[in-house]
């Protein structure tokens, strides 16, 4: 399963999907939104099956390839790319390529790609998985290269590069073990998950810092032994939630999204708030990869659709990150706060979050876990 990938959410769009099939199953997929391809990936040139034995065909090194001003993919494989428009607003593909070329020595994107291609082949071709994802596993190389480039103007970026170098060192250590495993025919090595975890965690830290900096706040990355970063000298910790396989299989999306239920589900999924707040004044908890995060994002987005679309309603606040940052500072005057948030792939990519949660409120939240939802009649 692609436990690290964010879902794609689309509202009021024309959406279609083309699936490329072969005798051995699915070879790729293309998502088209409003007549523009936003994701396309194809593994047909990266495997062979002889006598029911899967062989993955890989190069040692891969490089980014510009397909258009807003489409970037990987050279050396069948036509595959993603649109930068679902990552951030108006960020051209040149930013990704510049970031890749500048920071590849620090984080070896060119050597990581082959293992992520192998992962996609494994996911699509092993019958018991029967899994097709929104985007290829190598999407993290595209987004991380982009955010490294976008965060260069943030104060003390060099400190974050030290962290990135440490992550790169960990990745290089994993690559040696991955190489050994792949030579034995193990294309889904246990060493792949730590590699993905490191890359996605760093990506999320940079993503949040960039989005806050873009609003005009004074952001500074923390050095060794310090919190992740500071906003106007307020200490910030950021953590990302990555679901376990069992957690994913246990969750089913409801046929409709009720805002109150989605909000409660999201808040109750906050973990390690005590650890996060022990080092900081604000603890951002990224819920983007959880089903609960998707439900909350969808419930706030869908309130804009229908007869009252265009008029202000309560949920509009959650879609304006600038308003939420101001609320965070208001709550901060009374003590430390935790902030669950969601940022999914979207044609309108933005951070969505509920109200900041005061530290002392968590004892009450824990007690609420065992209480059922109020029905509409009870409301």
Search tags:
single chain, 379 residues, alpha+beta, 2 domains, 6-stranded mixed beta sheet, 11 helices, globular
Description:
By secondary structure, the protein is an alpha+beta fold. The protein has 2 domains: 24-219, no CATH class; 233-379, no CATH class. 38% of the residues lie in helices and 18% in strands. The chain has 11 helices and 14 strands. The protein has helices spanning 93-103, 109-125, 139-150, 157-183, 192-214, 245-250, 259-268, 273-278, 291-302, 321-332, 362-368, and strands at residues 15-22, 25-33, 36-42, 47-50, 53-56, 64-68, 71-74, 81-83, 219-221, 229-231, 234-240, 282-286, 337-341, 357-358. Strands 1-2-3-8-7-6 form a 6-stranded antiparallel sheet, with helices on one face. Strands 9-10-11-12-13-14 form a 6-stranded mixed sheet. The chain has a two-stranded antiparallel sheet with strand order 4-5. Helix 3 (139-150) runs parallel beside helix 5 (192-214). The chain starts with 14 loop residues before the first strand and ends in an 11-residue tail after the last helix. The model is unreliable at 305-312 and 375-379 (pLDDT under 50).
Summary, kept brief:
The protein is α+β, with helices and mostly antiparallel strands.
SSE topology:
Elements: E1 15-22, E2 25-33, E3 36-42, E4 47-50, E5 53-56, E6 64-68, E7 71-74, E8 81-83, H1 93-103, H2 109-125, H3 139-150, H4 157-183, H5 192-214, E9 219-221, E10 229-231, E11 234-240, H6 245-250, H7 259-268, H8 273-278, E12 282-286, H9 291-302, H10 321-332, E13 337-341, E14 357-358, H11 362-368
Parallel strand pairs: 11-12, 12-13
Antiparallel strand pairs: 1-2, 2-3, 3-8, 4-5, 6-7, 7-8, 9-10, 10-11, 13-14
Helix pairs in contact: 1-3, 3-5, 4-5, 7-9
């Amino acid at each position: 399963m692609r436990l690290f990938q964010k879902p794609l959410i689309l509202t009021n769009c024309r959406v279609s999907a083309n699936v490329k099939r072969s005798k051995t199953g699915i070879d790729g997929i293309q998502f088209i939104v409003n007549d523009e391809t936003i994701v396309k990936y194809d593994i047909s040139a990266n495997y062979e099956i002889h006598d029911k034995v899967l062989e993955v065909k890989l190069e040692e090194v891969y490089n980014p390839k510009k397909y258009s001003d807003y489409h970037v993919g990987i050279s050396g494989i069948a036509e595959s790319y993603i649109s930068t428009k679902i990552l951030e607003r108006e960020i051209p593909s040149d930013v990704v390529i510049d970031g890749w070329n500048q920071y590849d020595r620090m984080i070896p994107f060119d050597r990581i790609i082959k293992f992520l291609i192998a992962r996609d082949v494994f996911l699509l071709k092993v019958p018991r998985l029967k899994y097709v994802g929104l985007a290829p596993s190598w999407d993290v190389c595209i987004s991380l290269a982009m955010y490294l480039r976008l965060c260069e103007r943030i104060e003390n970026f060099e400190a974050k590069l030290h962290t990135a170098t440490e992550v790169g060192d960990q990745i290089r250590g994993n690559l040696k073990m991955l190489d050994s495993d792949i030579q034995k025919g193990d294309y889904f090595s246990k060493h792949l998950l730590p590699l993905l975890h490191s890359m996605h965690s760093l990506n999320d830290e940079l993503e949040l810092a960039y989005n806050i900096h873009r609003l005009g706040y004074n952001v500074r990355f923390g050095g060794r032994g310090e919190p992740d970063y500071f906003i106007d000298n307020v200490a910030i910790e950021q953590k990302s939630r990555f679901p376990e396989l069992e957690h994913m299989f246990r969750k089913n999306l409801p046929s409709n999204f009720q805002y109150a239920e989605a909000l409660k589900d999201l808040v109750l999924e906050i973990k390690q708030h005590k650890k996060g707040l022990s080092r900081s004044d604000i603890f951002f908890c990224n819920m983007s990869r959880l089903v609960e995060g998707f439900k909350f994002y969808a419930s706030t987005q869908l309130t804009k659709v229908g007869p009252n679309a265009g008029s202000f309603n309560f949920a509009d606040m959650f879609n304006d990150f600038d308003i939420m940052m101001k609320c965070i500072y208001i709550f901060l005057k009374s003590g430390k706060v935790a902030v669950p948030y969601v940022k999914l792939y979207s044609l309108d990519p933005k951070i969505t979050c509920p109200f900041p949660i005061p530290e002392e409120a968590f004892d009450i939240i824990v007690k609420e876990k065992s209480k059922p939802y109020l029905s509409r009649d009870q409301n």
